[in-house]
Amino acid sequence: MTFVNGFFSINVVQITNSSFNYDQGEITVVGHFGRLQVGKAYRFKGQLQHNYRHGTQFVAKEYQHLD
Q: Which residues form the ATP-dependent RecD2 DNA helicase OB-fold domain (predicted)?
């Protein structure tokens, strides 16, 4: 987790599976989450956006913890 303000957080996560083309092994995911746990798997739904200051980010509208 890189930044947290209430439920809004900015997280750098490892990509294991995606429905979009992205050639990096990690991506910055931003959105409103509960506490995400390191080492746990999650599915994020949203869209890629380019932030002029921070580069490409995945803006998540929803997420799900995977067992």
A: 5-65
